[in-house]
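Translate sequence into structure tokens.
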Amino acid sequence: MSDQCAESAGQTPMIPRIGIVGHLRRMICGRDNQTLDLGRLSWAVSTIAILVLAAWHERHAITVSLQELGMSLGAVVAAHGAALGLKAKTEPGGGQ
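Result follows.
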């Protein structure tokens, strides 16, 4: 039964279960959850790269400064957040 049919019949529409792939798609795709958004993809890859590099250094007994790690993560998150904020009007329905 579709959600519209369930609502008209007075039933609660089913909420689809979203697996990890669905969550990843929501993170890196645009507002339509179909189109790959390069800004969001860059944000995710940059953050993951910093965390993997820090783990790699820690694994090989190289000192990792938590202050430098925090500053680098903060810079990446702030820069990508600002970039996504500036391009928000290019998204479908972004002018609202």
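Note: Residues 38-91 form one domain.
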